[in-house]
Structures are given as structure tokens and as C-alpha cells.
Amino acid sequence: MIGGINAAAWSDNTDVKLVVWCGITTKIYVGFSAGVPAASMCNLRVLERVNARRRPDKSLDTRRERMVEVFLCIIFLSSS
């Protein structure tokens, strides 16, 4: 979608017409480049937990997992 709008806006020249659009797309690309690996890592952690043959301590494990997910979602993404 971003590529289509960019093609329509700058089809005939390279003059900057949509300064706000440039800022929005930059933020989307930066968030996407950090968000996709973080989301993949969270999914892989859940799959590992499902496939693990050991029996984890439920209360401590749940709290630790939530802390890691908060770190990945909030702190990791806000630092990029």
C-alpha cells in the first residue's frame, strides 16, 4: 500500500509534495523492521514452551514470560 501511494505521488517527478507522508512511512518502516523480529521471537518462545519436555514452575514461569514479553513489546520497540 505504501509503495502504491508513493508511486502515485511521485510518478512524474521527485519534488517533495507530501512531507507528512514521508514521516508517517518512515515510522511505519522502522516499526516494521523492529516489530516483525520481536513478534517472531515471541512466537518462537511460545512454541518452545509448548514443545518442552520439562515441567516448569507455573507461577514463576508465567511471571518471567510476561516480563520478557513486556520487554520485547515496549522497551525493545521504543528503543529502536
Model description:
Helix 2 packs antiparallel against helix 3. The protein is mostly helical and 80 residues long. It has three helices and no strands. It has one domain (15-79). 0% of the residues are buried. The chain is 79% helix and 0% strand. It holds the Pfam family STE3. InterPro entries: GPCR_STE3. GO terms for molecular function: mating-type factor pheromone receptor activity.
Uncertain spans, ≥5 residues at pLDDT below 50? none
Task: Provide the succession of SSEs.
Answer: HHH
**Could you tell me the number of beta strands?**
0
Helix amount: over 70%
Number of domains: 1
Shape: elongated
Class derived from helix and strand content: mainly alpha
Q: Which band does the percent of strand residues land in?
A: under 5%
N-to-C CA distance: 23 Å
Radius of gyration: 20 Å
How many helical elements? Answer: 3
Pfam family, one: STE3
GO cellular component, one term: membrane
GO molecular function, one term: mating-type factor pheromone receptor activity
InterPro entries: GPCR_STE3
Blueprint (SSEs and pairs):
Elements (H helix, E strand, L loop, with lengths): L1 H8 L9 H33 L6 H22 L1
Helix pairs in contact: 2-3
GO molecular function: mating-type factor pheromone receptor activity
Pfam families: STE3
